[in-house]
Amino acid sequence: MRQHLVVAETDTGIRLDRFLAQNLPDYSRTYFSRRIEGGDVAVNGRIELRCRQAVQAGDRVDVDFPVIQPAAVRPEELPLDILFEDDWLAVVVKPAGLAVHPGAGRKSGTLANALAHHFNRLSRRDPQRPGIVHRLDRDTSGLLVIAKSERAHHRLARQFQQRLVEKYYLALAYGSGLQAHGRIEAPIGRHPVHRTRMAVIRSGRPALTQYDVLERFHGFIYLRISLKTGRTHQIRVHLSHLNHPVVGDAVYGKGRLQTLPNKQIQACLQQLNRLFLHATLLEFSHPVTGQRMRFESPLPQDLEGTLNFVRKHDLTIDMIK
């Protein structure tokens, strides 16, 4: 696909990559730098390979865009909790039990299918994952930011990479021995034996989790957790590594439920049927305006009910204000 532009008097003298980013705001300056260096931009009919080349009034600029593949997911009319939406992004609350995108053995019934139905425009960096900038595990609920354009996707992804996004989770974990405040810094990689699982291993990628104890019970601990890196299953792996697996985690906390001496709490947790893990706060800079944006999502009713049951039957022994 080719886009034609004519340089206006007001744009005289600015760099070619900047001119393109200003006049085609769906894409970033970095994106156009790649297009220029790849020979996809012509000025007055001649290929221009220099991003810094200044444009002049009346110049004709042609950009050849690669054909964008349509989303490979089928739109489905699924419920979608949208907290915020503008021309560039949306913030949604994903329920537990909903996979973020199709995967092995799953082609429908995902958040990506719902997004393809609800929004007319989504980023297409990955046709299998339209609009998806970051993920949550299927059984984790909470906040996700969705990109509607390539420019928004690029800038949001860069914020995640540069650790400029604040992400907080609420979790109920087994045990009560953690300090009031702490950090877990341990590398995470693919489990050497169980390849569908992650583990703390020496050859893994650096991972940093910070936590604050909100409430301590005799057999549980209620935490607010901040992720400083975004490794797969990071919270679950780090807490399990400290022998404090997340309640409801059948992978990293297998068998822990059956060890509970309180049969009432055991019965309550058996009915939960999900991770007690909720992405409660998300803060980032708007990819176009630069405005700092902050969104919060309270505990879902099923988690709130479980927490109150534990409060009643296991008794709070310490509450951190």
Protein model, in words:
The chain has 321 residues and is an alpha+beta fold. The protein has helices at residues 16-23, 29-37, 111-118, 150-161, 234-241, 263-272, 301-314; strands at 2-6, 41-43, 46-47, 60-64, 81-85, 89-94, 141-147, 166-174, 181-185, 188-190, 198-200, 208-217, 220-227, 277-285, 292-296, 316-319. The strands form three sheets. Strands 5, 6, 7, 8, 9, 12, 13, 14, 15 and 16 form a ten-stranded mixed sheet that branches. The protein is elongated. Strand 5 (81-85) and strand 6 form a beta hairpin.
Question: What's a concise summary of this model?
Answer:
By secondary structure, the chain is of the alpha+beta class.
Provide the fold topology:
Blueprint: E1 2-6, H1 16-23, H2 29-37, E2 41-43, E3 46-47, E4 60-64, E5 81-85, E6 89-94, H3 111-118, E7 141-147, H4 150-161, E8 166-174, E9 181-185, E10 188-190, E11 198-200, E12 208-217, E13 220-227, H5 234-241, H6 263-272, E14 277-285, E15 292-296, H7 301-314, E16 316-319
Parallel strand pairs: 7-14
Antiparallel strand pairs: 1-4, 2-3, 2-4, 5-6, 6-7, 8-13, 8-14, 9-12, 10-11, 12-13, 12-16, 14-15
